[in-house]
Design goal:
The chain has 19 helices and no strands. The chain is mainly α. The protein has one domain. Helix 1 packs across helix 19, helix 6 crosses helix 7 and helix 11 packs antiparallel against helix 16. The model has no long low-confidence stretch (mean pLDDT 92).
Length: 393
């Protein structure tokens, strides 16, 4: 699954970059020294997926934090340190070419290991066929190309699935250590403690074993300590969110409400069919493009909410709890210009959603092929847009 799905993503990205024109925004956001240091075949194969946030991760791996900040921590503080640290370690020689290759190596290795563990985990809970379908549906999710790009998604998926698997085996210390590592990869990692505790209790561990979970936020705490020592701002990772248009924490209803409003305005924009009048004011770019994005993002939200409800009903309590927590976090901090921005990428790492979807498809086997075909078509389209510097997710 890893080999053919990621090879397909690389081929589609390379073809799109070669045949289609780049977005004008490339000149604003690209750093060729970071994203295109290889030249030749290496450039053609890897550079098309080293876009957008990959520039930040690779730059942090090369320069550390604060490289754009005159005083205090800069906007890069929003990117947690574990992934760029691993990239720096794997690269050995910290030049841009080595870091780019290492970025792909770390992402692909993490994603491959995550798929293996996920199949084993789902097999324990739901059976062989559901396990295979879960892996297929996840690998073909339209935003799954991030797992093979220089992004932290593959690493976070591995750590969260690993924490569940360790807890399912009753290994409290290992589960806590993986939670701690996850909290150094993304802020949501600290929330893993709750579902992991439910799993440990369900599988016979004592409450004393739960004490290990006090380590769950250790990665987040270590990052805050570093920011405090280096910049005098322990919470710089929260302050940096303002640079990315996050309006603060306001509860999951805010994302649902704002996403619905943005989708309605998008439908009005598309119905009007012209750029002369714009029905929304905060999102930049072509109004018809933004309108389509807002409608598609809301469709993703509706699908994610349906999958989350299914996960709560049909899966073990820990799985449902993780689905709810993982989805509530991005919805609680909507992006100002485009409330549901990056939602498909956030959904990609919520593996209980795909486990429930596998169960639903398994019950209606005639739906399996159409579901996989639609998802694969979405993946190809998303990769083509991303490779040409159009914003995706």
């Amino acid at each position: 699954m890893l080999a053919w799905s990621r090879l397909g993503v690389l081929v589609v990205a390379a073809a799109a970059a070669a045949l289609l024109s780049d977005s004008p925004r490339r000149s604003q956001f690209d750093v060729p020294a970071v994203t295109d240091p290889l030249g030749g075949a290496g450039s053609a194969l890897l550079t098309p997926l080293a876009h957008w946030d990959a520039v930040w991760y690779l730059s942090i791996a090369h320069d550390g934090y604060g490289f754009t900040a005159g005083t205090g921590a800069g906007p890069e503080a929003a990117f947690f340190p574990l992934y760029p640290l691993l990239v720096r370690i794997v690269a050995v020689v910290p030049d841009h070419a080595a870091l780019l290759v290492a970025g792909f190596a770390v992402s692909l290795a993490c994603f491959g290991a995550a798929l293996v563990l996920l199949e084993r985990l789902v097999r324990l809970e739901l059976g062989e066929r559901a396990a295979r379908l879960t892996v297929l549906l996840l690998a073909l999710w339209p935003a799954s190309f991030y797992f093979g790009a220089p992004y932290a998604e593959g690493l976070f998926l591995l750590l969260s699935v690993g924490a569940f698997y360790a807890a399912r085996q009753g290994r409290a210390a290992w589960a806590a250590a993986l939670c701690a590592a996850a909290s150094a990869a993304r802020p949501a990692g600290a929330l893993l403690a709750l579902p992991v505790a439910l799993l440990l209790l369900r599988h016979g561990r004592s409450r004393r074993d739960l004490a290990w979970l006090a380590l769950a936020p250790a990665g987040l705490a270590a990052y805050a300590l570093y920011l405090g020592v280096a910049f005098g701002e322990p919470l710089a990772f929260m302050k940096a969110q303002a640079a990315w248009y996050h309006d603060g924490m306001s509860g999951p209803w805010a994302g649902v409400r704002d996403g619905a409003v943005a989708a309605w305005d998008g439908l009005r924009q598309l119905a009007h069919g012209s750029r002369d009048r714009v029905y929304f004011t905060r999102a930049g770019g072509d109004p018809l493009v933004v309108a389509r994005q807002n409608v598609l993002l809301f469709a993703c939200l509706v699908a994610a909410l349906a999958m989350c409800a299914g996960a709560v009903r049909r899966l073990p309590p820990a799985w449902g709890a993780w689905a709810v927590l993982s989805l509530a976090l991005p919805l609680s901090s909507p992006v100002g210009p485009q409330p549901l921005m990056s939602l498909p990428r956030h959904v990609a790492v919520i593996f209980p959603l795909f486990a429930w979807l596998a169960l639903a498809v398994e019950r209606r086997r005639a739906l399996a092929a159409p579901a996989l075909a639609v998802s694969a078509a979405g993946l190809v389209t998303a990769v083509g847009y991303f490779a040409t510097w159009h914003w995706v997710a």
